[in-house]
Amino acid sequence: MLRWAAVFFVISIIAAIFGFAGIASAAAGIAKVLFFIFLAVAVIMLLMGISVGRSITHH
């Protein structure tokens, strides 16, 4: 998912350079949404990993 966010970010940069403002803003918006979804999933997985690690070490 982070890879797709980076791809859309690059597309938005290229579109901005060539003057396609609508495409650039849409691609940047998609990249931003994907990045925040990736961030949320990463935090959830980190918290799950910490909780699983604690339950394994206490038994």
TrEMBL record:
One annotated Gene Ontology cellular component of this protein: plasma membrane
Give one Pfam hit by family name.
Answer: DUF1328
Q: Which UniProt keywords apply?
A: Cell membrane, Membrane, Transmembrane, Transmembrane helix
Transmembrane stretches in the record are 7-27, 33-53
Q: Which HAMAP family match?
A: UPF0391
Q: What is this protein called?
A: DUF1328 domain-containing protein
Q: Which organism is it from?
A: Geomesophilobacter sediminis
